[in-house]
Amino acid sequence: MWIFLRKAVRLSAIYLYGATGEILTEKSGHLNLGTPGIMCMGAIGGCLGVRAYVGTLSSLAQMNGFAVVLIGIICAFLFGMLGGLIYSFLTVTLRCNQNVTGLTLTTFGAGLMSFVLSSIDQTGFSEASEYFRMGFVNGQDLDWFSTLFLNYGTLVYLAIAIAIIAAIVLKKTRTGLNLRAVGENPATADAAGISVGKYRYFATLTGAGIAGLGGLCYIMDSLLGTIDYEVEAFGWIAVALVIFSIWKPDLAIVGSLLFGILLNAADAMQILNKGLIKTLPYVVTVIVLVITSIINKRETQPPAALGTSYFREER
Which CATH number is associated with domain 2-314? Predict the structure, then answer.
């Protein structure tokens, strides 16, 4: 039972990175359907960073756990930000269609991941993965509390911390207030002296960097350092999770755990149709979307300007 929940928590961290990043982006009024591709780019960056570090070692025994984890996180974040920069330049500066740009970015990121990661040397990835997965306590014979709460890697705890910080920033700080104002009514925010372009760039780049960490988490935490190309699928569920959590990073923590349990159940219950179970996150999201539409309260609705580019001349 505890082992099942522990694996679900590890999977939930992947969703949480993507959802938190997308929530920040959407709060600024931009719908970034390129999140799956950005998570792929984060996986590329993290793996390249780990490989570059391993390449400097004369022996894998010299690997420093803190260094390899830090380098992987920084590189994944920067590559995710690169994807966010491409998206921001096209949609904020050039005012291209957000849906088309996002879908194109997803296709680009998935293709680039397949090309890059299939051609790099994976030596040292499994050894590096051990440091990514190292928890506060480690071992096989742990009590239920240690197994369930203390035996996760850095990326799992970091995902939760980022989601909590994002929720606090959005609710309690002036930056969060300005960001929400830009997403609700960019013309009014602009008239109040808030730079719409600046905040949209900031939210998209930060959100993309966070989403990029999800790709690294999938490779180094869930897959033990082996290369897989299913990151894009996790990205789409992360986008659905944004709706499920009604654009609140703290609720995304609960939602990502639920989605992680559903995905883990699909792998654990071999007698059932895996494909059917894996569709449940989308079904649950549709149900939540219908319920929130019926309730029709402002706090359960997306930002009013979501998906629309801002033209100052039309103010």
Answer: 1.10.3470
